[in-house]
Amino acid sequence: MTQEPAAALEAVTKTHGAVRAADGLDLAVRRGETLALLGRNGAGKSTAIGLLLGLDTPDDGHVSLLGGTPERAVRAGRVGAMLQEGRAVPRVTVRELVGFVARTYPRPMPVTDALALAGLTALADRRVGGLSGGQAQRVRFAVALAGDPELLVLDEPTSALDVAARVEFWDAMRGYARRGGTVLFSTHHLEEADSSADRIVVLDDGRIAADGTPGELRRAAGGAVVALDLDGGPSAYLSALPGVTDVEIRGDRARLRTDDPDATVRGLAARDAIRGLEVAPPALADVFLALTRAAREPEPSR
Predict the structure, then answer these.
(1) Are residues 227 and 191 in the same domain?
(2) What CATH number has the domain bearing residue 136?
(3) Residues 140 and 37 in one domain
(4) Residue numbers of the domain that contains 199
(5) What is the pLDDT of residue 283?
(6) What pLDDT, in 10s, does the model give residues 233-289?
(7) What residue ranges of the chain have pLDDT lower than 70?
(8) pTM of the model
(9) Same domain, 55 and 186
(10) In this structure, is residue 293 part of a structural domain?
(11) Do residue 55 and residue 152 come from a single domain?
(12) In terms of Cα–Cα distance, which of 285, 21, 25, 37 is closest to 155?
């Protein structure tokens, strides 16, 4: 990776009416990495992507894309994007559509390569209008690849897909990343960020609430989850175990969130209650909720 970021927002502010969608936002996407943007609805993810692509202009601050302005990078075909809105022409074939878009760029990716990366080689001569939702989304991915971009920007790319289609899409995206491409994507599916991103940035109210690898975010959130089988007897004692902050019981299995897993396990052992024991770091969903909750808590008065 070079030192210059692929994309950067520097002290960017953007207001939509009474909503401050970007609040002094500093975000740098390093070349060659896959970065996931997470956040609640309205946290500023789509605003950040729109600013980086030049679809919107900041009220204050600076935006750079591949060493220049967003407009210049997009016009040169150095950036490919999949946004939430968009519909392909239905009566053309997949090959015709990708080929048409490729011819609008100065140095396009060979159409056969774009189709292969998107997993569409076998569907190249099918008409776009007859494809399934997952297949149509892969066509949009191939169109984003048509200019042979250095950077791919994907805004909620799998929001309408079923599980199988989502797996196929991320397999295709990882194929692009293995070629050395840079990827920035936003998602509400936390497992996608966990499995596909080198780095995760959590946005909340237009600001960065957390930034790090999935493992770093888990460690920053602290604690662990202790799960065990119940024997059918009383379970009220679980909430009083050392370190336990939350107890969830599903059927005959308990899930304990704890700040001190060692102490919690010792407490269970003292009660001879270790059955089917599992100790694991917190799930990314737990980390996300903890981080966004902390970001919204008011600072103590002085």
Answers:
(1) no
(2) 3.40.50.300
(3) yes
(4) 7-218
(5) 76
(6) 788 899 999 999 889 999 999 999 898 999 999 999 999 989 999 998 877 777 777
(7) 1-2, 84-88, 293-302
(8) 0.79
(9) yes
(10) no
(11) yes
(12) 37
Query: Tell me, what's the pLDDT at 188?
Result: 84
Q: How many domains, in total, are found in the chain?
A: 2
Strand partners for 19: 16
Tokens of 230: 């119940």
pLDDT in tens, 152-171: 999 888 877 888 888 888 98
Q: Are residues 88 and 22 in the same domain?
A: yes
Three-state secondary structure string covering the chain = CCCCCCEEEEEEEEEECCEEEEEEEEEEECCCCEEEEECCCCCCHHHHHHHHCCCCCCCEEEEEECCECHHHHHHCCCEEEECCCCCCCCCCEHHHHHHHHHCCCCCCCCHHHHHHHCCCHHHCCCEHHHCCHHHHHHHHHHHHHCCCCCEEEEECCCCCCCHHHHHHHHHHHHHHHHCCCEEEEECCCHHHHHHHCCEEEEEECCEEEEEECHHHHHHHHCCEEEEEECCCCCCHHHHHCCCEEEEEEECCEEEEEECCHHHHHHHHHHCCCCCCCEEECCCHHHHHHHHHHHHHCCCCCC
- Supply the CATH number for residue 248's domain: 3.30.70
With respect to residue 302, please indicate whether it lies within any of the assigned structural domains.
no
Output the pLDDT for position 256: 94
